[in-house]
Amino acid sequence: MNITVIGGGSWGLGLSKVLSDNGHQVLVYDIDKKLVDKINTLHISPQLDEFIPEDIQATNDMALAMKHADVALFVVPTKVLRIAIESALPYIESPKTFINAAKGIEPKTFKRISEIFYEMIPQKYFKAFVTLSGPSHAEEVIKGLTTAVTSASEDEEAAKFVQSLFHNQQYFRVYSSTDLKGVELGGSLKNIFALAAGIIRGQGLGDNALAAFMTRALVEMEKIYNYRGANSETLYGLSGIGDLIVTCTSQHSRNFQAGYKIGSGKDLDETLDSMTMVVEGIRTTEAAYYLSKTAKLDTPIIDAIYDVIFNRNDPKKALMNLLAREQKAENC
C-alpha cells in the first residue's frame, strides 16, 4: 500500500523500515528539509545513524504527502500533534486510515491522541483510527531486532488491518486489540514511571527499589484505567506492563535518561536542553497529576514526580516522603 509517515524522527523511520520490509511504498514527511535531504541522499536515520531501505523516500511537501497516502501514520510528539494535523487538513481529500504511533496525553484536557484526531479531522475523512503501541525502542527496530507490539482500535477489523500492515515473520510481531483506551493509556502513563525509574537509578538505588516501584506504578496505572473506562486486563499486556518494563529498565528510554540526570543532581532545564529527543513523560506527568486531583485518585508516585518536575522538590526528599507515608494494605 501507499503509506505516508508523518514525522521523520527515529521512531518514524524505524516503523518506515518495517513497512518497507513488508513491501509497502513509504513516503516520509518532515518539516525539516535537512533531515529530508539526508533520508533521500544518504538513506540513513540521522538521529540513530542507521541505514534504512533505499526505497523509502522523504518530502517536506504536505500536499504531496497526503496525496500519496492510502494510510497516514503519525509519529510526532503530542506537543506538536495539533500543528501536524492542522498542516495536513487542507490536503486530505478522501477517507483514510489514520494510525498513531506516538505515546502521550494532552495536559489540562487529558485527551488521548485518538480523541484529538476525532476532534480535529472531519468524520467523512475517516476510514478508521488505530494506535500502534508496545515495548519498542526505535534503536532496536531499525536494526531488525525482535519486537512485539499491539495494534488497537475500537473497530476490530481496522485493528487487524493495521496488524497485517506491520506484522512480519522475521522480527516484528503484532497483536490486535479493541481496547483503544487501555492501549493509549498504557503507552502514555508508562513515560511518567520511566522518569521516576531514572531518578531512582540516578540516586544510586538498586534493583529492590526499582522492582517495588514498578509494581506500585501498576497500581496507580490501574486506578486511572478504571476511572477512564479502560479494560484493566490490557494493563497486563504489551502496551501496559510490557512497555513499563522496557522504559523503566533500558538506557534507550529518553524518559529514563532524563530521570537519571535529574536523580544525579542535574537541573531540569539543563537536562531537557541536553536531550536530543522529546521527553513525553514531562507532559504526561502534568496531565496525570491534574486528572488524579480532579478525580480524587490516590496516586502518590505521580504526585511525587510532579513535585520533583514542576515544583523542583529534591528527589531524595520526594523518595523519603513516599517511604514515610502511613502504612497500608498492599491491595489499596
Could you explain how this protein is built, in words?
α1 links the parallel β1 and β2. With 332 residues, the protein is an alpha/beta fold. Helix content is 51%, strand content 14%. The chain is built from 15 helices and 10 strands. It is globular, with a radius of gyration of 20 Å. It has 2 domains: 2-178, NAD(P)-binding Rossmann-like Domain (Rossmann fold), CATH 3.40.50.720; 185-323, N-(1-d-carboxylethyl)-l-norvaline Dehydrogenase, domain 2. The mean pLDDT is 95. The chain starts with a strand and ends in a 9-residue tail after the last helix.
User: In percent terms, what proportion of residues is strand?
Assistant: 5-15%
Rg estimate, integer Å = 20 Å
Total number of helical segments? 15
CATH superfamily annotation of the largest domain: NAD(P)-binding Rossmann-like Domain
**Basic shape:** globular
Multimer state = single chain
Low-pLDDT regions:
none
> Which CATH C-level class of the largest domain is it?
Alpha Beta
Structural class: alpha/beta
**CATH topology assignment of the largest domain:** Rossmann fold
The main sheet comes to:
8 strands, mixed
Which second-level CATH architecture of the largest domain applies? 3-Layer(aba) Sandwich
Query: Strand tally, please?
Result: 10
Report the end-to-end length measured between terminal Cα atoms. Answer: 49 Å
Note the run of SSEs as H and E.
EHEHEEEHEHEHEHEHEHHHHHHHH
Query: How many structural domains are formed by the residues?
Result: 2
Proportion in helices:
40-55%
Side-by-side strand order of the widest sheet: 5-2-1-6-7-8-9-10
